[in-house]
Amino acid sequence: MSGPIPGPADHLLPLRNEFRSAWSRFATGVTVITTVEPDGAVHGMTANGVTSVSLSPPLALACVGHERNTHALIRSSKKFGISILSAGQQTVAAHFALPPERRNPASQFEFVHLNSVPVLKGALAAMDCRVVAAHEAGDHTIFIAEVERIEVTDGDPLLWFAGEFAYLAGRSGAAGGRQARGRRRGS
Length: 187
Ligand SMILES: Cc1cc2nc3c(=O)[nH]c(=O)nc-3n(C[C@H](O)[C@H](O)[C@H](O)COP(=O)(O)O)c2cc1C
Hints:
By secondary structure, the chain is of the alpha+beta class. 16% of the residues lie in helices and 41% in strands. The protein has one domain: Pnp Oxidase, Chain A (Roll), CATH 2.30.110.10.
């Protein structure tokens, strides 16, 4: 036999594609995780690997890739904000899904302080979170955090489905009452 010896993960490649494809069918809301950089600047990262964990005490989790800037910022500050985006905030989501060097520096977004971490103005809901546990899981860390402040408003959510932004059907959001899809973006 000749040829390259397969790497340990090569046999998992087809599964990896199917894994991505399967999870792209899982419709989610869209959030922006906010942290504060050492110079005080707000850092944002679009995320849907976010969920509630416990009501008493109120716990939420965020899965953050080890290579994300947000990962190091949460590790050091032990704090983050979660802003659940509204249907009108697709531009915000697209902006914070790009690596910082590819973000348009002219794009400005308004933040408000809930407690210790800034969150996005105009979000459907926002939470101020203090990390109480961090679990390494593959190439991500699951940050579990106690939610210390919450703000909720009414409105329609921004959704993510099959690699595109989407809107609730039959609601009055940016889709004008019909389901609509946003710009495609590989992630
Ligand atoms: C809809 C959507 C959801 C995402 N969810 C996550 C997520 O849960 N965790 C994560 O680490 N990256 C997620 N990303 C990718 C990050 O937003 C992207 O890598 C971003 O550039 C990271 O920024 P940072 O490195 O400055 O923190 C998502 C991207 C999109 C478009």
